[in-house]
Amino acid sequence: MGAVKTKRMPRAVREQQMLDAAVQTFGRRGYMAASMDEIAELAGVSKPLVYLYLNSKDDLFTACIRREAQALTEAVRSGVRTDLPVDRQLWDGLLAFFTHTAENPDGWSVLHLQARIHGETFAGEVAVMREEIVAFVTQLIVVAAREAHRDPDLAEREVAGLAEALVGAAESLAAWANATPGVTARQAAATLMNFAWAGLGDLMAGRPWSPPPG
What we know:
Blueprint: H1 11-29, H2 36-43, H3 47-54, H4 57-78, H5 86-103, H6 105-117, H7 120-149, H8 157-179, H9 185-204
């Protein structure tokens, strides 16, 4: 009898295995401490194969950032139904965000922490993702504000800062929730929704808070 031939694993599948191992290693150990040997061993492949597929540690880290960023933005967008009221859309978007970051803590560590402290190139990759999410949230707030004021020409710049603040708060809260035992994605989303929607409600009703003179 001839030797039994094993089915060769498709390149795309093997690459995903490598990225899975890399995200776990980078997320838990940090970019500097992570070694290609460790990543290869965790992926069940040889180190030369990792270099063959992904060229260098920098390229591997960049690929991890891009994959995790795409997964997060897709999770947020797919979690929102545009036929629902705006407050429900914002809630669903926040819940999708916190659910994804809770289910993928290593990926969130790569995006929120590791990529931002290890060079302008890596930080720039995350900035692209963040801009997309901010733009998405800005549109949600713009629609809500225009409906409240019945003003179709309400400028986006008037709410762009609110979207930036909301996304920044979500990022910090996700990091806190992942590090705090017992905090669920739903609890984190509710915390931010209550905080944000109360303020947005007053603003849209024409009752913005004004700082005292002086």
